[in-house]
Amino acid sequence: MRVALIAKDKPNHLEIRKANREAHLEYIKETGVVEMAGPCLDQDGQMAGSLIILQVETIEDAHKWAAGDPYAIAGLFASVELIEWNKVIG
Q: What one-character-per-residue DSSP string does 6-75 give?
């Protein structure tokens, strides 16, 4: 199943994002369940959140993945939403 992870950063946390970016990218590589991902941008073009499409067996697996993300561990996110997603185009 595919799950969309939509996360919004806490205000004024860009430096936390930058400080944990390499660990976050390594986590993506190590876990092997990310189909596509990228940062959401604010009105100034700065990273302010994440959109990640996970390919997992269960929604519980998606929650476990999200909890282990270095960004989440660093307290970057103000909110995280996990939604089952169906790819239609692309």
A: EEEEPTT-HHHHHHHHHHHHHHHHHH--EEEEEEEE-TTS-EEEEEEEEE-SSHHHHHHHHHH-HHHHTT
Q: Compute how many other C-beta atoms are within 10 angstroms of the C-beta atom of residue 9.
A: 22
Q: What are phi and psi of 74, to 5 degrees?
A: -80, -5
Q: 28-49: per-residue pLDDT in tens?
A: 999 999 999 999 999 999 999 9
Q: What is the mean pLDDT of residues 60-89?
A: 98
pTM of the model: 0.93
CATH class of 2-85: alpha beta
* 76 contact partners, CB below 8 Å, separation of at least 6: 7, 9, 10, 13, 16, 17, 20
- Nearest in space to 17 (alpha carbons), one of 80, 73, 83: 73
The alpha carbon of residue 30 and the mean position of all alpha carbons in its chain are separated, in whole angstroms, by 14
